[in-house]
Amino acid sequence: MRPKEVSDGQVKDLHAAIGRLGRTLLLLCSVVGVAAGASAEVFDQTIPAAPGTRLDVRLYGGAVVVRGWSRDEVRVRATHFRTDTIDLRVVGQAITVRAHTRVGAPHAIDVDIDVPTWMAVAIVGTYVDISVTGTRASVAAATVRGDVTVTGGVGTISLKTIEGEVVLEGGEGRADLSGVNNGVRVTGLHGDLFAETVNGNVKLQGVQSTSVEVGTIGGDVSWDGPMISQGHYQFATHDGDIDVTLPPTDNAAVSVRAFEGQFRSTFPVKLPEESARHKRFGFVLGTGMARLDLESFRGTISLRQASSDR
Fold this sequence. Notes:
This protein is mainly beta. Among the domains are: 8-38; 39-131, no CATH class. Helix content is 10%, strand content 55%. It contains one helix and 24 strands. The chain has a 24-stranded mixed sheet that branches. The longest helix is centred in the N-terminal third of the chain and has 31 residues, at 8-38. It is elongated and about 70 Å long. It starts with 7 loop residues before the first helix and ends in a 5-residue tail after the last strand.
């Protein structure tokens, strides 16, 4: 059967219909764009902060960025849906930031907050990335799914996430860091450190501390930096590797448990026979003033000398 021929008039009608459809779609897109723009509101408020006041932020989703500044004020900025509200208020000795929605499920909101450098900060979220920089007070940050990044902080620094990475740069005091499926990275901390993960790696560099305790199940542990006399350093993993790099002149009494794993050292120390290395053994570097405990069930434990030109 031969297809029916299409007349010139039918072709013109088809072109006209396509043109009308295109104009309708353009109009619809412009209406949606205007509606989307109109549905967004900008929140920008500043309130005074009395000495001793702390910041308390609770957010369901989005991002919280906190920066320290020289003013005794707290400024909060955010762009959000009209169905959402930002609640900034003083409650006792705390300045609280909350987000509420009037319709439907909570939306993700990105919030930027400027605080006095002396102000303690506490942030809790569910699907939230958290960043804190430039503060000289305690920091507590916890989220379920998101990264936690802190630069600075003085006093107690508590950073926790389940699905995300924990990063601490600098800081003074005691750091309590926890992750589950991602890693923990610490650079330049001055103070005690406790870090734990389930599957993530723990990387420590340039940490100045007399008390370090690190534990993970499936992750690797690495340390690069000097140990302090009378300090105690404990690194343990079940399935991962441990890599410790020390200056050639460091002094430590070293205890090793390799179980089913291996032990290697570039320091000139006398090691037991290969068969005995799967049990607990120890040796002394220099005067042995610090204490270093290394434990891995299945991984490789490596003790390295840092190069002299570093």
